[in-house]
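Today's session is about reading a structure prediction critically. Students often jump straight to the picture, but the first step is always the sequence itself: look for stretches that repeat, for charged clusters, for runs of hydrophobic residues. Only then move on to the predicted structure, which in these notes is written as discrete structure tokens rather than atom positions. Here is the chain we will use throughout the hour.
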Amino acid sequence: MNNMNYEITNLTDEQVDKKLIEKVIKETSEYLKVKDKLVEIILVDNKKIHEINKTYRGVDRPTDVISFAFYDEKTSNFEGNLGEIYISLEKAHSQSIEYCHSFERELSFLTVHGLLHLLGYDHMKKEDEKEMFELQDIILNKLGVER
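Below is the predicted structure for this chain, in token form.
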């Protein structure tokens, strides 16, 4: 079984441990039995994610993570590129301080959150939010990433 494939692009000057993101992708794909799919992770600053948020969502402010799914069903035999995940490293830093946990924990959370969106999960309805957030917690716990 081939786990999820990935490309990680860092568009910032900040040095980030890509191994952490790789571990999150591997654990998520193993836990959800996702194989033979590609995900692109793009690390950006607040200015870039603000521009993306305004252009594609009509929201005029920076956000932490935005996922662009190229396919939108939870389960399928679709093989190929699931989509792109944009993560603001600046937001990850500020939120790690705000929520009193490590930057690594916040970056792991945002990666799992973005991956779950690409895999068809969302949090628009209470029951969907419960399912998605439970999965996030399970995966982060399996990684040993604690609050």
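Discussion point for the tutorial: The chain has a mean pLDDT of 91.
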